[in-house]
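Exercise 7. Predict the joint structure of the components listed below.
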Amino acid sequence: MTPLHAVPGDAPQPSRSGSLTQVRVEAPGKVNLFLSAGAPGADGYHPLTTVFQAVRLIETVTARRQAADLHGTITLTLTEPDPSVPTDATNLAVRAAALLAEATGVNDGVDLLLRKRVPVAGGMAGGSADAAATLVACNTLWGTGLSQAELVGLAAELGADVPFPLRGATAVGHGRGDRLTPLIARGTYHWVFATAAQGLSTPAVFRRFDEIAPAPAAPVDVPAALTTALRDGDTAALAACLHNDLQAAVLDLRPQLTEVIELAESAGALRAIVSGAGPTIAALAPDPAVAVRVANALNASDLVAGALRADAPVAGARMVG
Ligand code: ATP
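Solution:
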């Protein structure tokens, strides 16, 4: 049974909704092409410099007008039930709808249908994509008319990784990763993502990162070679620049991932690295045929739960119906 949640707010407000009965929005998962972390500040957060790229692993949120007897509540259903994804008020999509309702004074409620394609707890920001898609979907369903900049502001309140799937494409993130600057990226990049049966907790990875060695006070800048490779659409040059400061911590927590990296590279990937806070391994292939070969090699091994092919970059959250 799907739990129900009252929309936060004061006195009941009149509905601002237009005539739409449902809005469908897609938002992408991400891979980090580069991630440098500094020592945690007084707030406990690590300052980051990271390069995000949006990949064609697409989350779909359908926001439906709430049934009359459930008016004012936010409900969520998964198209394919998954015990590792909550459907209660802790789901990031539910939190996004509640935050938009609170910020705009709307109390219509919404019934969310969530189709997940990004690996859960895989360092690919699937939950963040769901939140971004929900903000866009509810903003239209409720007729609240917030600008993209206002939605980005709400996204940052929900989590550091939520602004990026709103924008998509390729971007540098500073601060907690939420202050974004777009990057020019030519061409198409062919990725293979090796998924793990068990996710990793991002805070646990950062704890291990801190234990292994003290980080410098500030993260390093994005190397010029990386921005040049993206601007030129040079996959081999990009592969040489891929970097993730969290990789050592993730491999320390999951030593068998080293074999996954080696297998992907021996099957033809130009480079394979840990995606974000892992445990997904992101392998960059020179072309689609090699991506198929890498995915087949990974799928044939017993080292991974699965292998997903996805090209990149793709657009951020957008309405599809
Ligand atoms: P990040 O890189 O932003 O840390 P992630 O991609 O590693 O995220 P998610 O798939 O976003 O991880 O989910 C992390 C945890 O958040 C899950 O284990 C789950 O308990 C919880 N969660 C909350 N909302 C969602 C959602 N909409 N989809 C998936 N997990 C969610």
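Discussion. Residues 84-86, 90-93, 120-128, 130, 161, 199, 202, 276-277 surround adenosine-5'-triphosphate (CB under 6 Å).
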